[in-house]
Structures are given as structure tokens and as C-alpha cells.
Amino acid sequence: MQALSEDHRMVFVLREFEQMDLKSIAGVMGTTEGTVKSRLHRAREAMKKHLAPYLGSPQDGNR
């Protein structure tokens, strides 16, 4: 997760580990829900890209 920027990491942790809703995350971070959605999407995509070599490709059936 160190590969993520601080903002992306915070959104990812609050959503995926703390199970906070988007409105609450926006409040904590002092931003809009739209920004939270965007950062969460980018964080998830970055994590997928970073972990892909370890998980195999969908064609391998390792998904």
C-alpha cells in the first residue's frame, strides 16, 4: 500500500478496512463524496495493477 499516495491510501483504508461509508470518509477528509469515489477507484486500480503479478492473470484461472 506504500505505492499509493497518502490521499488514496487513506480513502482505501477507511473504506476497505474501517468499512466507512463514502459520506463519512468525505467528512473526515474534508472533501466531497465525488472526490472520495474518484480516489477510491484510482486506489483500487493501482492496487490491482500492483498485485497482478502475484495473483496471475484471469486467463490462468487464478482469479
User: Helix/strand-derived class?
Assistant: mainly alpha
The first-level CATH class is given as Mainly Alpha
What is the number of independent domains? 1
Helix percent reads: 55-70%
CATH superfamily: Winged helix-like DNA-binding domain superfamily/Winged helix DNA-binding domain
What is the total tally of β strands? Answer: 0
Calculate the mean pLDDT score and round it: 91
CA radius of gyration:
13 Å
Unreliable spans are none
Main beta sheet: none
**What is the percentage of strand-forming residues?**
under 5%
Order of helices and strands, N to C?
HHH
CATH-level-2 architecture: Orthogonal Bundle
Can you give a write-up of this model?
The protein is mostly helical. The protein has a single domain, classed as Winged helix-like DNA-binding domain superfamily/Winged helix DNA-binding domain (Arc Repressor Mutant, subunit A, Orthogonal Bundle), CATH 1.10.10.
Q: How is this structure best summarized?
A:
With 63 residues, the chain is mainly alpha-helical. It has 3 helices and no strands. The longest helix has 23 residues, at 33-55.
SSE layout and pairings?
Blueprint: H1 6-17, H2 22-29, H3 33-55
Helix pairs in contact: 1-3, 2-3
What descriptors fit this protein?
mainly alpha, 63 residues, Arc Repressor Mutant, subunit A, 68% helix
